[in-house]
Amino acid sequence: MRTAIFCAAGHEECEALIVYDLLKRAKMDIDLISISDQLTVVSSHGLTYQTDKVFDEVDFAEYEALVLPGGLPGTTNLHEFKPLVDLLHRFYNEKKMIAAICAAPSIFVKEGFVSDFEFVCYPGFESGKTPAEGKVMIKDNVITAKGLGADFEFAHAIISYLKGKDVADMVLDQIQYWG
After folding, report:
1. pLDDT-derived band of residue 156, with 50, 70 and 90 as boundaries?
2. Whole-number Å distance between alpha carbons of 20 and 26
3. Is the peptide bond prior to 73 cis by the omega test (within 30 degrees of 0)?
4. 3-state secondary structure (DSSP) of residue 155
5. Do the Cβ atoms of 85 and 112 come closer than 8 Å?
6. Distance (Å, rounded) from C-alpha 99 to C-alpha 140?
7. 58-93: per-residue pLDDT in tens?
8. Cα–Cα distance measured from residue 6 to residue 56, given in angstroms and rounded to the nearest whole number
9. Are strands 29-34 and 53-54 parallel, antiparallel or unpaired?
10. What is the SS3 assignment for 67?
11. CA angle, residues 137, 141, 144, in degrees to nearest 5
12. Interatomic CA distance for residues 76 and 19, integer angstroms
């Protein structure tokens, strides 16, 4: 099974690429997926890079987890892409993991995947709900994280959910993370 990280124009590149790197170190199958019709994306800080696949060419039956990086206007672009929102609903209802960091948890709030105290996000993106305290929140099959500063804990939570805490701990030990 695979994990997808979605890249939209204006996303926070570190929230995509650091998580990608750490999941790869956990020997996970992971793809960076562009929501446009081009493999090339431009991040919120002007980094241009190539994703692995474009959304319309992917069979999501092969995937067990979906990850949304934040950033602006990336979060807005992700939420405005109806096929992705429909896919998030499908995964949520099938109890498959969905995860978002920074501004992207606002999508989960707006789509009804979390309620008060069931998520964390970057301050100002609460979308009318009250976030929990801390860097990362796991509620059933939904993982949220506060922002770039929580990237390592976010990846740890994803790896723990999908491959177990021992594997997640091993990855952070290998990179000398002592957060």
Report:
1. very high
2. 10
3. yes
4. helix
5. no
6. 11
7. 999 999 999 999 999 999 999 999 999 999 999 999
8. 12
9. parallel
10. strand
11. 30
12. 20
Q: What is the pTM of this model?
A: 0.97
Contact 146, 126 (CB under 8 A): no
Residue 104: φ, ψ to 5°: -65, -30
Amino acid occupying residue 32: L
3-class SS string, the chain: CEEEEEECCCCCHHHHHHHHHHHHHCCCEEEEEECCCCCEEECCCCCEEECCEEHHHCCHHHEEEEEECCCCCHHHHHHHCHHHHHHHHHHHHCCCEEEEECCCHHHHHHCCCCCCCCCCCCCCCCCCCCCCCCCEEEECCEEEECCHHHHHHHHHHHHHHHHCHHHHHHHHHHCCCCC
Structure tokens at 173: 């030990």
Maximum Cα interatomic distance, the chain, rounded to a whole number of Å: 39
Cα gap 75→89, rounded to integer Å: 17
Burial class (CB in 10 A: 0-12, 13-18, 19+), 44: buried
Distances (CA, A) of 65 to 46, 61, 74: 27, 10, 19
CA distances from 164 to 28, 90, 168 (A): 12, 24, 7
Mean pLDDT of the chain: 97
Q: Which residue has the tokens 């499908």?
A: 90
